[in-house]
Amino acid sequence: MASKNVTAKKNVARPGPSKAGSGGAGTGKPAAGKGAPSAGKPAAGKGASAGKLAAGKGEGGVRVADAEFAAGAARRDQVPATSLFDDAHEIAFAGRSNVGKSSLLNMMLSRKGLARTSNTPGCTRQINFFDIHLAANEKFEVPPRLVFVDLPGYGYAKVSKSEATAWKQLLEGYLHERPTLRAVVVLVDVRRGLEDEEADLVEFLAERPGIRVIVAATKVDKLSLSAQKPALAKLARGPDGERLAVVGTSAETGAGREVLWARILDACRADEVASPEVVSPEELV
Ligand SMILES: Nc1nc2c(ncn2[C@@H]2O[C@H](COP(=O)(O)OP(=O)(O)OP(=O)(O)O)[C@@H](O)[C@H]2O)c(=O)[nH]1
Ligand SMILES: [Mg+2]
Predict the structure, then answer these.
(1) Could you count the other beta carbons within 10 Å of the beta carbon of residue 32?
(2) Looking at residue 202, what is its pLDDT?
(3) How far is the C-alpha of 47 from the C-alpha of 44, rounded, in Å?
(4) How far is the C-alpha of 235 from the C-alpha of 229, rounded, in Å?
(5) Torsion of the alpha carbons at 189, 41, 174 and 100, rounded to the nearest 10
(6) Ligand 1 center to residue 99 CA distance, Å?
(7) pLDDT of residue 271
(8) Which residue ranges in the chain fall short of pLDDT 50?
(9) What residues does ligand 1 touch, defined as CB less than 6 Å away?
(10) Angle at CA 68, nearest 5°, toward 66 and 74?
């Protein structure tokens, strides 16, 4: 599959009474698991019925009308066709094992346990695709349908070399070839900062046209407020001293949810995606 820029303008809904409700905008929502490859037991929760977070988190901003597990791929030939999602924009969550990818994805969707999380690194072992329908929004344009993609973590030591190579190929193949991929949220533990693997990933993605890279610093709740700002500012200086778009997040407190949504929606709107935008440290959380 050749990589190309996909604008998918048809998927961008304007706020208005006709788009209210399920947010489907006539795109025809597939049943959960429909068309999903037989990738074994999905490493994800039950789908739409997964418990919503307590009221308060996510209120007043982007509202997710519906979110469900759609497909899992442990091999490249199991990656679902983009037509399963009507060529909706995809947003992938990438980062090392245990950094908090699945937790952040749940936080963004205001769904507890939709993507399975665990204390044990290596929890997510396949690429999981979640079909998302956003509620129409008075304040800004939202695409009615999006796909969130939970990627297996890299740098997980307890898998065999051949399994690690297979994961890498699966991941790189997906990131390189997926025509509907609009943004990759690269997760970095705020306490660890950018290490070689993250720098390599950012560089790898920079070579792929049409993809916005958004760095999400995770677990900011683990740092005191006074320690957060310098840690985020340090992260915003990229591997080669260039500025990266960094958002401080916490799946525990919901911090960073609206800023990250704004960046994701911005990436979906952009016809041409430029290199990561510059943000000031004050904007980071
Ligand atoms: N305090 C705190 N803990 C978090 C946060 N995000 C994730 N965690 C915890 O970190 C651990 C790993 O989270 P996951 O979301 O499963 O991480 P992952 O990156 O999906 O891991 P793999 O699937 O193994 O690659 C879990 O115990 C989470 O509860 C956060 O923002 N704050
Ligand atoms: Mg995971």
Answers:
(1) 18
(2) 87
(3) 8
(4) 10
(5) -10
(6) 6
(7) 59
(8) 1-59, 272-285
(9) 95, 97-103, 117-119, 121-124, 153, 218-219, 221-222, 250-252
(10) 155
pTM for the model stands at 0.78
Kindly report the length of the chain.
285
Residue 73 alpha carbon to ligand 2 centre in Å: 14
Residues with CB under 5 A from ligand 2 (ion): 101-102, 123-124
Distance between CA atoms of 243 and 248, rounded to whole angstroms? 15
Residues 6+ apart with CB under 8 A from 58: 64, 110, 254, 257
Q: How far is CA 180 from the centre of its chain?
A: 13
Mutation test residue for ligand 1: of 96, 98, 149, 192, the one with most atoms within 8 Å of CB = 98
For residues 200-214, b (16+ Cβ closer than 10 Å) or e, as one string? ebbebbeebebbbbb
Q: How far is the CA of 118 from the centre of ligand 1 (A)?
A: 6
Domain 29-283 has CATH 3.40.50.300: yes
Ligand 1 mean position, distance from CA 115 (Å): 11
Residue where the block lists tokens 């936080």: 107
